[in-house]
Each structure stands twice: as structure tokens, then as C-alpha cells.
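User: Fold this one for me? It's Enoyl-CoA hydratase-related protein.
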Amino acid sequence: MSVEDLLIEDIGEVRVLKLNRPHRLNAFDASMSGHLIDALTGASRDDSVRAVVITGCGRGFCSGLDLSRFTDGSLFPSTRHARLDELEWVGRLIEGIVHNDKPVIAAMNGVAAGAGLSMALACDFRYVAQTAKLTTGYIRRALSPDAGMTYLLPRIVGHAMATDLILTGRDVTADEALRIGLVHQVVAPEELVESALEFAQRLAAGPPIATTLSKRLLISSYEATLVQQLKAELQDLKQCLETEDVREGITAMMEKRVPKFQGN
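Assistant: Here's what I get for Enoyl-CoA hydratase-related protein.
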């Protein structure tokens, strides 16, 4: 269900989440982040959803934390629960994307800065409009990175490039972002959401169980030894072999047709 600062729409088996604070270039506050976390959790648990697209309304994808909330003290809630939460809403949001059981695609329609860029980095795929500008941004405001920036960015573009982008805070064009491996696809602005949605629908047509297990294996590999990862891969492969989707995949291959995976 949509709320004021987050629009939610199901298009077939793809759930589209649109950040809706265009007057602030979709900058995060605790409210919008909380709604997005809830929506991501719901999508992860909903069997009717097979892929997720995150994009922004207006000119921006997400300009990071809404620092206007810093002056009135509302950037981080002062509840006891929030004070005792070591991850706070920023970390919970990144967790909700990285550990989501569905593929998550960022459709970066405009500026992506700070935590907004981190959110895109946490996604499995990043589509960006040709006109968009990306920046880590933190150093410009005398801030150190958060939202998983120092974990995700080096793993995507390498340590040297991540150091450059974080310590300079410089703008990155869509073309440079593609060249350094920061994004997967550069698209004309008017075609961005449609292109991301078409890609999400292709992912959604895949086998849901194998897709989820594959994503979990990729994430767990960051902190596993080779032997641990080999064991995890074998365990998940055996689980896949028990599904009807494997039989459908093999049958479709033999019959030279497109498989129809049901998630069973």
C-alpha cells in the first residue's frame, strides 16, 4: 500500500517502489526510510513478487540523508529503541536490500548522493539515466560515509577507485559510472524505468527458488571460507534438485521451448 512518501505499484510479478519526496530530491528521513524498509520486507516475503525496482519521483533518485532534519534534531529518532539500535534505520535499509530474497534493481533517474548512492550500491543491478550525476558526497559535508558505502563501493569498483570517489566526493557522470563498473546500464532518461522494468520482468520469469538461493550464496561468499562456500553451494544445489522447476527446466530444454517456472 502506498504512503505519502513512498509509492508502491505491482506490475505483473515486479514490485515498483518510488521514493516520493521530490521537493527534497527524495532525500531520506526516518519516515520514508521506515516505509521503504517495510515495503522491502513485504516484497521479500511475498511469493507473488519475483523482483523489485526502486526509483525516484521527480528529478532525483535519492540525494542522501535529509540534512535539513539535522537542525531540528529529527534526522535520527530519539526513542529508546532507536538509541539502542546499533544499525538504526540507515543500516536496516541497506540490510533490507542486500538480504532481500528477490533481485532488486535501482533505476537511478537523477542525482544519487551519499546514502542514496549507497542504497543503489546495495541493489543487485543499477540502471542509470544518461543525465544523472552520482557522488559519494559525504566529504563535502564534513561527514564520513555510512549506509554501507565503505563496504559496498570497494567491492564494486575496487579499493583505489573507491578511495578516489569517497575522499574527493567528486561528481561521476553516467558514462564514467558505466566505465568503472559502478552501474550496469546507461539509458536515455525517458526510457529508464521502462528498461529497468523490462529487465526486472526477465528476472521475474526465472526460477524463484534458485534465484533466491543464488543471491544468498553471493552475499554469504563475502565472509565465508572456500570450504564453507562449497558446502553451502552443495546444500543449496541439492535443495534446487528437489524442485519441480528443475524438472520443468530440463523438460523445456529437451522440448526446445521456454520454461515456465512456478516456484515449486
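One thing worth pointing out: The CA atoms of residues 38 and 96 lie 9 Å apart.
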